[in-house]
Design a protein that fits this description.
The chain is 48% helix and 5% strand. By secondary structure, the protein is mainly α. The chain has one domain: Arc Repressor Mutant, subunit A (Orthogonal Bundle), CATH 1.10.10.820. A hairpin with a 6-residue loop joins β1 (75-77) and β2 (84-86). 9% of the residues are buried. Belongs to the TRAFAC class myosin-kinesin ATPase superfamily. Myosin family. InterPro entries: Myosin_head_motor_dom-like, P-loop_NTPase. This is Myosin motor domain-containing protein.
């Protein structure tokens, strides 16, 4: 979200505003001793050093984006049932788009 790699903003269907994402905005948004842009580049470099392929690296980012969008999903209780159902479809499309081809967790961690 630091916009150091603007292509990630578009690819992950996110904004640069942390308050747009429930999971991201529940704690301290900025920490004076941490440079978010520098941390992103260090993380990006670490993924390369660990030997992940370009496709796996993209999958890591997309799964992270999907989790951010999961945090924004709203649910409502079904009438006369103890189940919930989605309250709208806006975020579901984003989650689906980001996670539809991501088999990294199955490949790497054998889930």
């Amino acid at each position: 979200m630091s916009n150091k790699k603007p292509e990630l903003i578009d690819m992950l269907l996110i904004t640069t505003n942390p308050y747009d994402f429930h999971f991201v905005s529940q704690g301290e948004i900025t920490v004076p001793s941490i440079d978010d842009q520098e941390e992103l580049m260090a993380t990006d470099s670490a993924i390369d050093i660990l030997g992940f392929s370009a496709d796996e690296k993209t999958a890591i980012y997309k799964l992270t984006g999907a989790v951010m969008h999961y945090g924004n999903l709203k649910f409502k209780q079904k009438q006369r049932e103890e189940q919930a159902e989605p309250d709208g479809t806006e975020g579901i499309g984003r989650v689906s788009k980001l996670s539809k081809r991501e088999s990294l967790c199955h490949k790497t961690f054998r889930l």
